[in-house]
Design brief:
It is a single chain. With 485 residues, this protein is an alpha+beta fold. It is built from 10 helices and 7 strands. The strands form 2 sheets. Strands 2, 3, 5, 6 and 7 form a 5-stranded antiparallel β-sheet that branches. Strands 1-4 form a two-stranded parallel sheet. A hairpin with a 4-residue loop joins β5 and β6 (334-335). α2 packs across α4 and α4 runs antiparallel to α5.
Length: 485
């Protein structure tokens, strides 16, 4: 349908301007409420009176370099290498670059399009041949919120890709620290296991002597030999765990083979301990640090954009079109008389016969938006629960370490008494073996608890969304004081 009267065109455009506001999708309202404080308090040390002592403060800004709190230069270097060489993160950054390029064409459908064409044809009687050249202009006005909805959808896709980049960064750093701590803990445990095997071997030797002197039985020798075999078998499981962690770390760094020093059997040095923690990151901060919450927010934006497009489809689509034709009669070698008249006017696409289908689509998109809003709230609740769980795990490992330390003190005191009795000739070497083995066993359990505590820290930082912000995201990240949760 084309109108040739300029007054009709002006009147139609004025009417469209009034009606355009009716089609906009409402701004989605999401529940961003969060508790004011954490239920679990991340205290790691107590004073002599049993009161918790404050540790180093951890703010939102500190989450970007949380692994540096171990003060381990090798770990810092590994994280830097992983951020530079990891293939999963590189793929996520590539998708981010791709999406940013696509943002430039988000509203291209609502920009004026100019096309031209050249062709030759004959009339029906095949008497004359004509040369036609035309210039055509089409402009979809994107009324009733169509343009804005398209831009919103494109922006939602960008938010989603940005969240995936942050998720890849968070997972990468956590996995690198996790695997590195597994390797270091396995190497430290080798020394403890070696001492235990040596002690069990000495126990078997002394029991054999006691059996010859009829001071012990063959059954006692058998039980001690069985204990020695079990101690030696633990080396196999320890080596398998270390090898698995070393190869996993190599993959994270984009390498085909692990560093040989990661596979060394023993390292007497105990892994460095994480300092006490005074958590300054609040539950509301998760809204801008956890990538899954950002992904859920992008889903809400995407659903709102889809609803805007489906609602705009309920209204007529208006476009402006124009055409300028030049025609030349090649047979008679002259220009035609009606070749220079431009055609300009609106094009109206009215949804009549398929309006019911469009209405159903709009209703379905509205329901999808409600689902996305609920998904956002679910992600917020899960994020808070993840941090609370990590804090509870950290507290449990601290208490476990305190109990093991108390046990170690009791064992050491008892062994000191037996050592003194041995010096005085009141006890033998054999009488001290059980205490010495108990001390080694407790030291091994303390090492396991310390490793579990370190991994609880990793789980906490991962739950908080801790990771360095890639340079590709820093430009789009608003200042911390300017962001609203």
């Amino acid at each position: 349908m084309k109108a040739t009267s300029p007054s009709r065109i002006v009147l139609s455009l004025a009417l469209l301007t009034v009606l355009t506001g009716c089609a906009f999708a409402p701004e989605p309202t999401v529940d961003r409420s969060a508790p004011a404080q954490w239920t679990q308090q991340p205290t790691d040390r107590t004073d002599r009176a049993g009161e918790p002592t404050p540790g180093a403060k951890l703010t939102v800004a500190d989450l970007q370099s949380w692994w540096s709190r171990w003060n381990d230069a090798e770990l810092n270097a590994l994280v830097d290498q992983a951020l530079a060489q990891n293939l999963d993160l590189a793929q996520a950054l590539g998708r981010l670059k791709q999406q940013r390029l696509l943002m430039g064409v988000a509203s291209a459908a609502y920009q004026p399009e100019v096309s031209g064409g050249i062709r030759t044809l004959q009339d029906v009687a095949a008497v004359d041949s004509y040369f036609h050249a035309s210039i055509d202009v089409a402009w979809d006005l994107g009324l009733f919120g169509a343009r804005e909805a398209s831009q919103r959808t494109a922006h939602a896709e960008l938010l989603n890709v940005q969240a995936s980049v942050r998720a890849a960064s968070v997972a990468l750093v956590a996995d690198v620290v996790h695997r590195y701590l597994d390797i270091r803990m396995a190497q430290y445990q080798y020394g403890l296991f070696a001492e235990r095997v040596a002690l069990d071997e000495r126990t078997v030797q002394l029991l054999k002597v006691r059996r010859e002197q009829r001071l012990d039985t063959t059954e006692a020798v058998h039980q001690a030999t069985l204990q020695l075999t079990q101690s030696r078998a633990q080396f196999i499981a320890l080596k398998e765990s270390q090898t698995r962690a070393a190869h996993a770390l190599a993959v994270l760094l984009g390498r085909s083979q692990p560093d040989p020093k990661w596979l060394v059997d023993g390292n007497a040095q105990r892994p460095s301990q994480h300092p006490a923690l005074d958590l300054q990151v609040l539950p509301a901060d998760l809204l801008r640090t956890r990538p899954d919450i950002q992904t859920a927010e992008a889903a809400v934006e995407r659903a709102a954009g889809a609803l805007g497009l489906s609602r705009s489809a309920l209204y007529p689509r208006f476009a402006l079109s124009g055409s300028l034709l030049f025609s030349y009669n090649l047979t008679q070698n002259r220009r035609t008389t009606a070749d220079h008249m431009p055609l300009v006017g609106p094009v109206i696409d009215i949804p009549l016969f398929d309006w019911g289908r469009r209405r159903s689509q709009a209703d379905a998109d509205e329901a999808a938006l409600d689902v996305a809003i609920m998904g956002y709230r679910q992600s917020v609740l899960e994020g808070i629960a993840d941090v609370e769980t990590a804090l509870a795990g950290l507290s449990a490992q601290r208490k476990r370490l305190d109990l093991l330390q108390s046990t170690q003190t009791l064992i050491a005191n008892r062994d000191a008494v037996l050592a003194r009795r041995q010096q005085l000739g009141l006890a033998s070497e054999f009488s001290r073996l059980s205490e010495q083995r108990a001390a080694l066993q407790n030291r091994s359990e303390m090492a396991v608890a310390q490793g579990a505590q370190a991994l609880a820290y990793v789980a906490l930082y991962k739950a908080l969304g801790g990771a360095p912000l890639p340079a590709e995201l820093q430009a789009a990240e608003p200042p911390a004081e300017g962001r609203q949760p």
